[in-house]
Write a structure and sequence with these properties.
The chain has 2 domains: 125 residues, Nucleotidyltransferase, domain 5, CATH 3.30.420.40; 172 residues, 2-Layer Sandwich (Nucleotidyltransferase, domain 5), CATH 3.30.420.40. β2 and β3 form a beta hairpin. The chain has 10 helices and 12 strands.
């Protein structure tokens, strides 16, 4: 008698959008949906909407819930060490804290749930089906509105003692640098994130620097700075070069500390500016690393899965750890 095919449901919850999908054991995406989250939301409503969307997706794919072994959920949140509570997720559920999100999902779906922070899950996705396919020692670094990292050691997510490992954006590069949202000064995030790129450009314009950026429609963004850099604007070029220097220096520290086989770079800044940033980042990291780093085998590459990295990583988490 032929065994019934099994699938994993997966979701990726960000600050403004959600993705849901169905993935088989090989990584094939059977079905997928993207939808925008409402501006005002509370945990119960978020779970109810997610359960409804997943139920509909399973039905549309011609499956039944008996074929779904569990849900893997990637979430933009700080989770507790036991992976059961959302400690903080201001961009997702406002001021609510210590929310038993995993339990709420399990009650709504009647299936086991695996809950994990988004950067860690994305690392799994890129190591399974993306730019780092097959690598056991991998770091995924997201550079966007903020900067964070997902760490894989021997193919397993490394969370640290209390579950907060990966706050790469809050490593200090310049103690006398600009103030970060975390309250510290000189964090990588305050120097090389998307908002930091825009702020550096605005400061230079306020100081009277001449630039093509002045001709672009406000509000100023990192994308505008990159656009001006491609047109040969000297100020924009300086800012992009400095951003690459910051990121490459930070990655050199990461390479010296963890010695990963692959560093995968993703997020809006990298997606929108890989042509400007990727090679200077590599060159800076190589220049600043110790001679013990083997550059014949060590790779710094751009992410390839886009939005699907979170879904595939969430599915991979279930396939790796489910007893079924």
């Amino acid at each position: 008698m032929k065994a019934t095919a099994r699938y994993v449901a997966c979701c990726d919850l960000g600050g403004t959008k959600a993705l849901v999908g169905l993935v088989d054991e090989t990584g094939r995406m059977l079905a997928r949906e993207r939808y925008l989250l409402p501006g005002q939301r509370e945990p119960g409503q978020l779970v109810a909407e997610l359960a409804s969307r997943l139920t509909q997706l399973v039905r549309q794919a011609g499956l039944t819930w008996s074929q779904v072994i569990g849900l893997g959920c990637s979430i933009a949140a700080v989770l507790d060490a036991e992976r059961r509570l959302i400690q903080f997720a201001p961009n997702l559920i406002g001021s609510a804290q210590n929310v038993p999100f995993k339990d709420l999902l399990q009650q709504a779906l009647g299936r086991p749930v695996w809950l994990e922070m988004d950067a860690q899950v994305t690392a799994l996705g890129e190591a399974w089906q993306g730019a780092g396919a097959g690598a056991g020692e991998l770091v995924y670094v997201v550079v966007g509105t903020g900067i964070g990292a997902g760490l894989l050691i021997q193919g397993q997510i490394y969370r640290g003692w209390s579950g907060t490992a990966g706050e790469f954006g809050h490593t200090t590069l310049d103690p006398r640098g600009p103030r970060c949202n975390c309250g510290n000064t000189g964090c990588l995030e305050a120097l090389a994130s998307g908002p930091a790129i825009a702020q550096q450009a605005q400061l230079a314009l306020d100081q009277g620097r001449t630039s093509l950026i002045r001709e672009l429609q406000p509000p100023l963004t990192a994308e505008m700075v990159m656009q001006a850099a491609r047109l040969g604007d000297p100020l924009a070029g300086e800012i992009i070069q400095q951003t690459a220097e910051y990121l490459g220096t930070a990655l050199a520290n990461l390479l010296n500390l963890l010695n990963p086989e692959v560093i995968v770079l993703g997020g809006g800044v990298i997606q929108g500016g890989a042509d400007l940033l990727l090679e200077p980042i590599r060159q800076t990291a190589m220049r600043r690393c110790g001679s013990w780093i083997d550059w014949r085998k060590t790779r710094i590459v751009a992410a390839t899965l886009g939005e699907d990295a979170g879904l595939l990583g969430a599915a991979r988490l279930v396939w790796m750890t489910s007893p079924n």
